[in-house]
Amino acid sequence: MSQAFSSIRVGKKYRLTNFGEVSEFEVTEIIGRRDFKLKDLHTLESYSISDLIKFGKGKDYSLWEME
Predict the structure, then answer these.
(1) What pLDDT score was predicted for residue 1?
(2) Position 65 pLDDT exceeds 90
(3) For the chain, how many structural domains are there in total?
(4) Residue ranges making up the domain that contains 24
(5) Which of 7, 8, 19, 36 could potentially form a cystine with 58 if both were Cys, beta carbons 3.0 to 4.6 Å apart?
(6) What DSSP string describes the chain?
(7) What is the CATH number of the domain that holds 18?
(8) Cβ atoms within 10 Å of 25's Cβ, excluding its own
(9) What is the pLDDT of residue 6?
């Protein structure tokens, strides 16, 4: 079972799959009740988690903490 937004923690790394796209990121800041500022682990670009799920959650949606 993938993780709930309530269990996301600053400083942790996660992999999100949604609509066939895979994103790996580190959470850098909590910016809202269900929104977080992220740093992409590959490009170092910053964005929010709401940008990743702005079109909803697909059938393949999953969020996992990385080690």
Answers:
(1) 63
(2) yes
(3) 1
(4) 8-66
(5) 19
(6) -PPPGGG--TT-EEEEEETTEEEEEEEEEEEETTEEEEEETTT--EEEHHHHTTT---TT-EEEEE-
(7) 2.30.30
(8) 24
(9) 82
Looking at the domain assignment, is residue 46 inside a domain?
A: yes
**1-59 per-position pLDDT tens digit:** 678 888 899 999 999 999 999 999 999 999 988 899 999 999 999 999 999 999 999 99
- Residue 2 included in any domain: no
Q: Cα separations (Å) of 34 from 7, 20, 48, 53, 56?
A: 11, 22, 10, 11, 14
Euclidean distance between CA atoms 65 and 26, whole angstroms:
10
For residue 58 the two structure tokens come to 């697909």
Tell whether 26 is covered by a domain.
yes
- Are 39 and 49 within 8 A, CB to CB? no
